[in-house]
Design brief:
metal-binding; exonuclease; hydrolase; 3'-5'-RNA exonuclease activity; magnesium
């Protein structure tokens, strides 16, 4: 079959591998000529450019890597909308460095959700006996709201909202989840309750059944 081999060489670099490239192209022609079972195909070998500057390793040049091997990068320039409620469920504990000034002013809040950063909370928000008996609150869930996070700090600044109760119990855990996702679970107002049927038990009126499709 007819075979088209395309190549381009740099005349200034004949002593650095041109003979090797010609041998490689000759081998390719031999391999293609042995395949007599297929129809004639035009096979093009991509242009080979070699210069003295390209003799070194090319692994570090991202332009020579395939598209699927590249990792795109970006930079956040503006927060359009804050979707998170800034509330998290977690535990409080004393700071490790007892000799620091921060130890006498703040405690550490560790959220259950590890996607939320740890935060410093003021000791005035903690229970009164937390400093003397911190082990009593090792299993108590708290709700903390993040109010600030400085660029030069590894920890955010938070404010304890309330104590939920013991971890592992259904009611504190449920209340914590609802507060984290900003779900309003407060009692309905009297105005909303007055919109409901007052005479119980309530049944669907016949006129409603007549104009509706029964999917029961």
């Amino acid at each position: 079959p007819d075979v088209i081999i395309e190549a381009q060489f740099d005349d200034n670099d004949a002593e650095h591998g041109q003979d090797h490239l010609q041998d490689m192209l000759t081998d390719d022609v031999k391999k293609l000529s042995l395949d007599t079972g297929e129809k004639a195909k035009a096979v093009g070998i991509g242009d080979v450019h070699r210069t003295k500057q390209d003799d070194g390793p090319k692994v570090n040049d991202p332009k020579l890597l395939p598209e699927k091997a590249l990792q795109r990068t970006a930079k956040v320039v503006y927060i359009l909308e804050k979707k998170h409620s800034r509330a998290a469920t977690g535990f409080i504990k004393l700071l490790a460095d007892k000799n620091s000034e921060l130890f006498r002013r703040c405690a550490m809040f560790s959220p259950v959700d590890h996607r939320v950063p740890r935060a410093y909370v003021s000791l005035t928000d903690c229970p009164p006996d937390f400093m003397t008996r911190p082990e009593d609150y090792s299993n108590t869930l708290f709700i903390c709201r993040i109010v600030d996070w400085k660029e030069d700090s590894n920890f955010a600044t938070g404010q304890l909202a309330k104590s939920l109760g013991q971890a592992g119990e259904i009611e504190p855990e449920t209340e914590g989840i609802l507060m984290e996702y900003g779900v309003d679970f407060s009692d309905f107002s009297p105005e909303a309750l007055n919109c409901l049927p007052q005479s119980l038990p309530w049944v669907i009126p016949p006129r409603e059944l007549a104009k509706r499709r029964d999917l029961r």
